[in-house]
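Re: the 134-residue chain
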Amino acid sequence: MPFDETGRRPGRRPSRNVLGGPVGVCSNDPMTGFFRNGCCETSPEDIGSHTVCAVMTAAFLAFSKAQGNDLSTPRPEFGFAGLKPGDRWCLCAPRWQEAFEAGAAPQVVLHSTEEGALRHCRLADLTRHAIDLA
């Protein structure tokens, strides 16, 4: 299905973040999201639940690589430049939870984390790692 001018899929209800508001943009550089529209929106086709807007750290990237998901190595054949510390990325909620339990969870942007993340992560845990709460 094509996207409208906002990068959202037409005909779908607007995605909500874990705080109940609209999902904000996580990152356009690098372009992230299951739909590669910069937002951590999800759908039934997204079996990984790419719903947590996370700020990459060296520790998390090393953890993810050790778990078999190398996010730091460029893969030009897929148009993927590789992630570096400081990049924002729509992370699979189960992977964030796994990293949390291992003490390697990256920080989270709650306003850009889609409510579907709450099927895998507790809001209190995400909030403890939030960078966007005043």
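The helical segments are 58-66, 93-101, 123-128.
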